[in-house]
Design goal:
Blueprint: E1 2-4, E2 8-11, H1 16-27, H2 33-42, E3 45-48, E4 55-56, E5 59-60, E6 80-81, E7 85-86, E8 90-97, H3 100-108, H4 117-124, H5 126-150, E9 176-177, E10 183-184, E11 187-190, H6 196-212, E12 226-231, H7 236-246, E13 247-249, E14 261-264, E15 267-273, E16 292-296, H8 298-303, E17 307-311, E18 316-321, E19 328-336, E20 338-340, E21 347-352
Parallel strand pairs: 2-18, 3-17, 11-21, 12-15
Antiparallel strand pairs: 1-2, 4-7, 5-6, 8-19, 9-10, 12-16, 13-14, 14-15, 16-21, 17-20, 18-19
Helix pairs in contact: 1-5, 2-5, 6-7
Amino acid sequence: MSRIESTITFEGAGRELLDALVTKTIDSLEYMPEHNQYASKLGFTDTTLLNPDQKFGKVAFGGGARNVAETGKGNLRSLNNMAKKGIYQQEVKEEYRLSYMSTQWLRQNKSLAGASDAILADMAKVPKLIQDLNKSVDIRNAEEVVKVLAKGFSITAPEGPGSATPKALSLINSSHTIDAGGTFSNIVTGAVYTNLATGIAQLQAALDKAKAAKDENGKKIKQPKVYTLAVSRERNTFWRQVLNNKGSASATGTNQWVLNQFNFEGNMVEIVDLDLLGDTDVNGVTIGSTEYAFLLNLEYIKSAEALKTYRLYEPKVKIFEDADTDELVISIRAVVGADHYYAEYGVVGIQGS
């Protein structure tokens, strides 16, 4: 068994020709380009798990320093360890089978010299099969990442996308509680695609809610220099019109060629596409809605590691012989998972209709 590029574990079947071909193919792969793309856009932190029952939480720091007591002693400070939340993982597996004829040839020969056209064709498609298996895990990971936001408007699952916050509320909710007292909202509702004026009002409302979010000590969350507005491909043009109508594209300093950044009423907003919004997942279920949009404070999300992807073990490609059919099987097995941990302080959902 060998590890290739520290991303995929490979276990061969002792068939010299096939094992070498698979190893060479994996070496040439860019692993998880889709997963990395979406995780990066949304501020996810990739976390290596220590055990399958691991939990993550957050520490809420106290307020400012208090006056010296009459005794001359300092005030005893304590960290507020907030509720923890477990992990969500799904084990996935996909496989391809080589023909019986090719299996028997590989069992007895170390080269393709003299092999039939059918066997040559079977071997020629192996690199494509490996690429497709790798892509299948990559796509599933990307779906889970986008679902964390897309399913955040309600509680539909005990863990993972659609799960509750550690405080038992949906990720995007109108009444997130604050330990120091009070609540804050991170949801904007209403028909946002009827006209530009409505869209402008909705985006301004989202910015206002982002700025009003408070941590457990009652202090406002630090806001980013540039907000990220994640939208579907179908609504990209609409949101660009909103940003252009009430603002202007960034055209100064180091941002002068960044066409996706806008100055909206004094707030810098960067627009990014989430192509998976509105698509169907592996089970044929629609991922959220093309009408959804999300305003993100990526500085908070990244610093607090509030959105996470993780894995207990690295994807494993294996070649083995099926004892029932005497066919060689090429399989990939992996664990996918993504979830939110106090991300409500850095996300505002616009639930368009």
